[in-house]
Amino acid sequence: MKKLILLSGIFVTLFIGGVHSQYNAAAKQNVINEEVQVERYDEDTKEYKIVTETREVESDTYGNAEGNQYDLAVDGAFEGQTIAVLHLYTGEGFDFSLPTASLKEKGFSVYRWINNPPSPEALDSALAKSCQLWIISSSTQKLNLKHAEVIKKYFDSGKGVYIWGDNQPYYADANFIANHLIGNKMLGNVMGDQTVGLLQDGSKSGIMPNHLITTGLQNIYEGITIATIDQHPDLTPIIYGSDGNLVTAAYEKDGKRLLVDGGFTRLFLKWDTAGTGRYVKNAAAWLVNYERFGDAVLAEKEGE
Q1: In terms of C-beta density within 10 A (0-12 exposed, 13-18 middle, 19 or more buried), how is residue 105 classed?
Q2: Which of 66, 83, 116 is the last residue of a domain?
Q3: Which runs of E-coded beta strand occur in the chain?
Q4: 141/41 same-domain check
Q5: How many domains does the chain have?
Q6: Are residues 113 and 257 in the same domain?
Q7: What is the pLDDT of residues 43-85, one digit of tens each?
Q8: Is the model's pLDDT at 185 over the cut of 80?
């Protein structure tokens, strides 16, 4: 007996914000449904009828929607855009190859300085060609005040910054730069190594629902040992860890975007656990700040 006869399409609400060409239709949705036409037997008429049912799209092993069409950004959307990475911690085989491969799906290339930063002048020159900066902190401070001023100028221009630290003491430069940009810091050492779901009423751990960064995510791996982001009036929580600590938070004010994260271990350890690849792609797409720089981003992509 034939039951499922036609997949009629994704049942989602388009994200309204002038970014349709760069973002998928599922933007800002965690639980994604589709409409499916099926054949059902009607007891009253004694006939089979075609009816439309709404059901959740297929999920991966960890309960997140399966397929790149449920990421925030369309594949290849940011072709020609470069992410600059101050990769100051490279222990335990952390070579950034896994994030690089995921980011490539959206069109991003990655330019890294490994273990030590360039001169402030060289950093400034490179950032002029980059759409965002990621800083992966080590246990000792390697950036100086001149570096910080270059990064602040970049941040104040509206370009995105992602500040990654981890458990104490692996947040030396993370705290130095976060404090310089927005007066924030991370602290402590919390044992994580858990997957957290969506924040529900009364829950103390989980993912902030209905945010662009969490598109297509119902579950995410928090990292192994993690730091806690200090409270800040201008930070929006994105991930609370299994211990109820704030692991990841977003700053979006005055046309500027920044992420602060206390769990860089998930960039290379247990990568295939829940949601990391999608999260990384979503975060990078959000940090492009396309809502502010859309025309310029498209011009760069088209070589104008």
Answers
A1: middle
A2: 66
A3: 4-11, 33-42, 47-56, 82-87, 109-114, 132-136, 160-164, 186-191, 195-196, 206-207, 220-221, 225-229, 235-240, 246-253, 256-261
A4: no
A5: 2
A6: yes
A7: 888 888 888 888 899 999 999 999 999 999 999 999 999 999 9
A8: yes
